[in-house]
Amino acid sequence: MKSLLFAIPFFLLGVMTKAQPSQVFPEKLVMALNHPYSLYSAQSPWFGFFQYSNYVNKEIGVHTTEATYLPLISEITNPLYIDDAVKFEMLSAQACGVDGFQFVIRYTPFSDLKVLSRIIEAYHRVANEENIDFNFSLYLDFHHPASVKQDQMMDMMKMQLKYALENTTYSAKWLRSERGEIITLTGNTESIIDELNISNVSYGTIQTKIENDLSYVETVDSALVSIEKFINEPLEYIYQTRFPRSKNYINKVLSKYAGIWNIHVNNSTVDEIIPSLAKKHNKPYVQFLSAQESQFMYRKNKPHDLVISANKQTGTFRGELENAVKFDAQMISLNSWNNLKKGNFIAPELNHGFGFTVLLKHYKDKWKNNEISEDEILLLAYNTTKTTTEVKSQLNLIITERHAKKEEMDKVEIVTYLTSEGDVYCNKQFVGKAQKGMNNFYVDIPNGVVTAEVKRENKKVYTVTGTTPIKDKAYRYNFLINTYTNQDQKYLDQIIDLAVDPVVRQNTMRFLLTQKQQQAYKEAVRTKVMENINTLKEHQITSSSLSQKRAKTNKKYKKEIARILGSQNYSIWEEIEMEAEELSRRRHASYKEGEVKGQLLQPFEF
Predict the structure, then answer these.
(1) Alpha-carbon distance 542 to 186, whole Å?
(2) Nearest-angstrom CA–CA distance, 531 and 537
(3) pLDDT of residue 593
């Protein structure tokens, strides 16, 4: 019956043009790319890459990014049950200004798709059962290796998508257009066909081909329609083009699809082309947003090279948010929530902090509600390792300067949003006068701890200290942008509460905790987390003080838990904690075994 009901609207869809006017988005939304496996649950194959033991693992090569990040959730609790894990992701994303997730589907050569289905189903089920105001959509990225042919890539992506939609077809949490179609952004769209695959054809060649032969739009469309037919579900495609200067091509795309988007190119004239053409076609424009370009990339055929995308700290991020306001984008596509490996995430993490969250929420108020915030901002951003930093295994750094210059990425950035002017200082040196509104300053700090201040009438109003020092020497490169703001504690408290709530709930049921004991338990966790975070920021992974201070903090934490629970209950609690840690180790070991056999997708494949 289901297939019959679907066949009728799909037939009608086939005879309707994609250009038919429709209300695509129900409201303005920030939708973040979500890699479903990037989840702090022992039921996800990636959880081992979230843990402290991975972050301080000196055996991991200096040319990889797997040990450059540490999600804050791993400092708060053991790996969560899948329902608690997805709930935490949704609620913490909401706290950071995100309205929903776009589940990423792309070519991946591995076999176990049931894990993907289980995680996405859990997101929908928990969102519905807990009545969480959160949406889900799809992101189909057609980038794939040159060695993989179109049919092979499409077959794998279709199967992934089929599993992703399994058990969720009728979920009210799918973000749908007015016509009832699931909103689906495409990425690297032209690569869906072999002769336009960016992996084996140059950008310029592809641009020349599509400009000289607009029938490629029809060829791409046929491939996209074949996906809908295979999964038996209509999709509302928002088309990504990599060629904003090709106006005839864009006009052809806009005549067929519900909307369009492109990656920010840091050129104001070019950046205006897509939104202006979308407006002429009465189609929505989607604004791309990325916390930073990829941290760095390692090329197997050139083992002594490390390719780094230069970032002007939060400069590009703010520029993209300003474009969302300027061009009245109907959706912001955030790349990403949890792509930890690449570095462009905003999920709560040790290095990135909450700077990108603070900026997103500030601009979102103006973009969505036309509200001018009264919350003042002092933000500090910098890289803890510079392009000149000495590391254990020195590599040849190749800097790509698409969004910033090499010398800019080594500077310290200070951003202010003030309701009245103030004087800005860095390490007690006057930097400049910040006017009312948004301002930014860039200074050279060779090494050490960095402090920024705002003063009015020679009195300190805000002080922000970057406790992670800029290093002359380091064990490994880490080009994750470090941010610190005057609002960090507020967001950190929220994240700790969200992560510790399921733990307190379980222990309340187990030990019949009173309200006073529950509060004391939360406070014990908060104290431990704060102390461990500060220790991690202040000490390199090679420092003996790091492990010593953490051991001291954890010992003090356990002593406080024993006081709260009593000796008998504490013995049970300690045994459960040890069992949970052992289970996590065993599960991680089994995933590693699967990795050796080539059966599991790992973060480096994204």
Answers:
(1) 43
(2) 10
(3) 54
Beta strands in 292-392 (DSSP E): 297-299, 302-309, 331-334, 377-382, 385-391
In sequence order, which ranges of 109-266 are alpha helices (DSSP H)? 114-129, 150-165, 203-212, 216-231, 247-256
For 177-213, the DSSP string reads -TTSPEEEEEESGGGGSGGG-TTTS-HHHHHHHHHH-
Would you say the C-alpha torsion 109, 110, 114, 118 has a positive or negative sign? Answer: negative
Q: At what angle do helices 114-129 and 150-165 cross, to 10 degrees?
A: 40
As a whole number of angstroms, the distance between CA 18 and CA 15 comes to 9
Which of the two residues, 291 and 61, has the higher pLDDT score? 291
C-alpha to C-alpha distances, 327 to 290, 359, 568, nearest whole angstrom: 17, 18, 62
Cα–Cα distance measured from residue 112 to residue 342, given in angstroms and rounded to the nearest whole number: 23
Closest CA to 402 of 325, 309, 294: 309
Q: What is the dihedral of CA 118, 122, 124, 128, to 10 degrees?
A: 150
Which residue in 337, 326, 448, 389 sits closest to 39, CA to CA?
A: 337
| Whole-prediction pTM | 0.91
User: CA–CA separation, 135 vs 316, rounded Å?
Assistant: 26
d(C-alpha 40, C-alpha 353), whole Å: 18
Q: Are 70 and 372 in contact (CB under 8 A)?
A: no
Q: Which residues pair with 176 in a beta bridge?
A: 182
Single-letter amino acid, residue 13? L
Which two structure tokens, joined as six digits, stand for 126?
């928990």
Residues in CB range of 563: below 8 A, 6 or more apart? none
Angle at 81 between CA 91 and CA 590, to 5 degrees: 130
Task: Tell me if 368 sits within 8 A of 28, measured CB to CB.
Answer: yes
Give the Cα-Cα-Cα angle 373, 378, 384 (nearest 5 degrees).
135
CA distance 435 to 439: 7
**Residue 483: CA count within 13 A, CB half-sphere:** 30
Do 120 and 157 form a contact (C-beta atoms < 8 A)? no
The DSSP 8-state label assigned to residue 605 in this structure reads G
With a cut of 80, say whether residue 384 has pLDDT above it.
yes
User: 135 in helix, strand or coil?
Assistant: strand
Calpha distance 292→546 (Å, rounded): 28
Contact 422, 456 (CB under 8 A): yes
CB atoms within 10 A of CB 552: 12
Helices 515-538, 544-565: crossing angle, 10 deg rounding: 180
**Model confidence over 128-165: pLDDT tens digits?**
999 999 999 999 999 999 999 999 999 999 999 998 89
CB 59 within 8 A of CB 541: no
**Biggest alpha carbon distance in the chain?**
78
Q: Crossing angle for the helix pair 82-95 and 488-511, nearest 10 degrees?
A: 150
- What's the rounded Cα separation, in Å, for the pair 443 and 458? 21
DSSP string covering 365-426, please? Answer: HHHHH-------EEEEEE-SEEEEEEESS--EEEEE-SSS-HHHHTSEEEEEEESS-EEEEE
Residue 127, token pair as written in the block: 């969102």
Specify whether the CB–CB gap between 314 and 12 falls below 8 A.
no
Q: 443-464, pLDDT tens digit by residue?
A: 999 999 999 999 999 999 999 9
Band (476; pLDDT cuts 50, 70, 90): confident
**Cβ-based neighbour number of residue 444 at 10 Å:** 9
